[in-house]
Amino acid sequence: MPFPKRTPLAWLNLVHDRLRFIISLGGVAFAVLLMFVFTGFMNALYDSQIQLLKQLNGEIIIINRLKSNMVLPASFARRRLYQALAFEGVEAAYALYTSDANWKNPETKRTRPVRILAFNLADPVLPLPDVEANLKRLQLPNTALIDTQARAEVGPTTAGIVTELADREIRIVGTFTLGTDFASGNGNLIMSDQNFLRYFADRGPEEDTRSFATVDVGLLKVSPNVDIDALVATLSDRLPQDVSILPKEGPAGFVQRERTYWQENTNIGFVFSLLTLMGFGVGVILVYQILYTDVADHWAEYATLKAMGYSNQFLLGIVLQEALILSALGFLPGFCISNLLYALAGGATGLTFQMTIARVGMLYATTFIMCLISGAIAVRKVQTADPADVFGG
Amino acid sequence: MYLEGEGDAMTKPGNRFFAPENPLSNSLAPIKDELAVQIQHLNFAFGKGDLCKQVLFDISLNLPKGQIVILTGPSGSGKTTLISLIGALRTVREGSLRVMGQELADMRNADRVRVRQSIGFIFQSHNLFESLTARQNVEMAVELLGRFKSKRDQAEVILTQLGLADRMDHKPQALSGGQKQRVAIARALVNHPPLILADEPTAALDKQTSREVVTLMQTLTREQNCTVLMVTHDNRILDVADRIINLVDGQLESDTNPDAFINSHTYKNSKHDDAKMFIM
Questions:
Q1: Structural contact between residues A188 and A130, judged by C-beta atoms closer than 8 angstroms
Q2: Looking at the complex, does the CB of residue A391 fall below 8 Å from at least one CB of chain B?
Q3: Residue ranges per domain, chain B?
Q4: pTM over 0.80
Q5: Is A74 helix (H, G, I), strand (E, B) or coil?
Q6: Contacts with B144 from chain A: Cβ below 8 Å
Q7: A286: buried, middle or exposed (CB in 10 Å: 19+, 13-18, 0-12)?
Q8: Superfamily name with CATH number, domain B6-118+193-279
Q9: What whole-number distance in Å separates Cα of residue B18 and Cα of residue B1?
Q10: In chain A, whose CA is at the least distance from the CA of B138?
Q11: Which of A41, B58, B118, B189 has the most beta carbons within 10 angstroms of its beta carbon?
Q12: Which of the two residues, A388 and A279, has the higher pLDDT score?
């Protein structure tokens, strides 16, 4: 060794048996993978719900007071938007119309519900690059854009498809990328408000008719340097009480409200937290086994160290170091494989799998704690190493 | 401890400064300076209540510095218990046991750990870490005293003395039984402990190797003037001892030099020709 440091006993003990070390790391990586997959699905389900909302181009959102989530089909009077426009600081007001309709898969001819997002093409409601590039084509009658992230049941998602929407012919003139959520059914279509009327103004005696009189989501564009919270308070105070006015961002905002709704009203969190906990438990047991085996195999050596005058704390330190080395080196492959799985799962489900730094950090901390707990249990074995028993062994 | 009375500090001026650093230095009273181990009326029992089994009865024994002492006796006579008590591996509850002047009776666990740092232990099995090289195994002992700068040199010197100069970077797997035991001895001796406790150090070795190992121990201990207390059943190595203590049923039966020990045992068992057979 080139530098006069303490002999890295923990590291050397771990890597002494290469094969066992690699298997150990595989075990930790597997536990990490389990936790990544389960938290990944949980987050993906939540993230997907707010995917569309985050793209909406407005700082303040107006919705029907009863619309507690995006699945609920409650709309409000469009004149509320014009009333809001009268307030100082409100620069523009856009209307977003949504409706569910049956889409016929052009290949299997089976119908599936999809969600239609419609708006005045002059208004930048959804400023996605793909949408803006196709605005001209959307002006033609009976045309729409389809989401490439739509579920497989929708069929091929390419421009040029001609099929039926709500029993009328529709022509797909382009694509965009958004993703599915609980409200979108099997996928999203985007069309102009004019086309929206063509499809939904008169759907027959048993269906609700739609017109420009009611809006599903209203967006307010606010002038720069305007206090959004103050403006929201003013609007809530002054506009009729049949609408909710929310800032888009922030802890009390529209986007967070949607996420909170799904967190509080579904078992997603419980189920996936439970599964993650099980992954965690598997990890604890695996790492414990690895550390316990190390201590048990080297019991006489550890007892000898104690006899020589090494304190219990030193040996605890060795076991904890081993735990930390395992957590760090096992996390890396687990993380890499998880990244791969996220991409695959995202492609298969249309859900949004996001690997954010905060989530990676969080899971590393969890892995760290996992190994620490295992270390703490295994350490008890070291403490029982009685140096007096080595004599007369 | 810094709130001691003024008078106390006056009578023992050096005490408060040295005591926390090295517990061994201050309590070395001059009278016991020549004794490595002093045992008075030591009793020891395992278990409690009805299950209490006494294994050592009223042992009184002095080991002067520089002696090689062999502790022998039949199985179950309490040799191992005695040596583990001297090695501060068990708590002394009855009687007095002083190692290098330190009273071990009723000593706290943390203090016993410190006492052990000045004792070299050699066990029947080598107990080397398979993952460490011979040198690293020895260095672990030097690190105990915090000498990180000199640990490499110290380890190399002692391993060279034990004839392992060309095996230093081998792991125990690549060493023979005798070499492993020599590494274990190097580990015990590298800090120049004033007291060495050995438990059947030659049990796992063949005749020639055990002779080599014992001779090495003898030479090194002579050079470093340390005391060796060795438990052994191995009658091939009795001649290295200055003194042989025979323990039977937890009591000291005899305490003599090797020749007298052999003679006395030969006399008692006259139909045997080879004295060395009775040491078992």
A1: no
A2: yes
A3: 6-118+193-279
A4: no
A5: coil
A6: 308-310
A7: buried
A8: P-loop containing nucleotide triphosphate hydrolases (3.40.50.300)
A9: 12
A10: A7
A11: B189
A12: A279
